[in-house]
Automatic annotation (TrEMBL):
The chain crosses the membrane at residues 6-22. The keyword Transmembrane applies. This is Twin-arginine translocase TatA/TatE family subunit. Pfam families: TatA_B_E (PF02416). It is found in: Membrane. Its main location: membrane. It is a single-pass membrane protein. Signal peptide: none annotated. Keywords: Membrane, Protein transport, Translocation, Transmembrane, Transmembrane helix, Transport. It comes from the Bacteria.
């Protein structure tokens, strides 16, 4: 959790206990919980506004998925073409070298 170990968490709890006292800790925890809920609601509202704006402009999740799928397929096609050409060129170079020098044998 946030890169904090068990010992560090206990130390933080001890400092909080010293700062606020045992009677204020439930109130502080309740306030922090409410703040976290408000933050979560605000981020969800922002997400929904972004999705609404995208849908109004014709960019819903389905069309974006189709668009990225098209891009991915084109990229994969180009990669396959380039890789195939490279393998064919390497094989031709190997044949040319063997034709010139003959099979290379290692000497011990």
């Amino acid at each position: 959790m946030f890169g904090i170990g068990g010992g560090e968490l206990v130390f933080i709890m001890f400092i909080v206990l010293l700062l606020f006292g045992s009677d204020k800790i439930p109130e502080v925890a309740r306030t922090m919980g409410k703040a976290m809920a408000q933050l979560k609601n605000a981020t969800n509202d922002i997400k929904s506004e972004i999705q609404k704006g995208a849908e109004e402009n014709g960019l819903d999740s389905k069309s974006l998925t189709e668009m990225t799928g098209g891009f991915n397929s084109q990229i994969n096609k180009v990669k396959d073409d380039l890789l195939g050409d490279s393998v064919a060129q390497a094989a031709k170079m190997k044949e040319d070298i063997e034709d010139i020098a003959g099979p290379v044998k290692r000497s011990r």
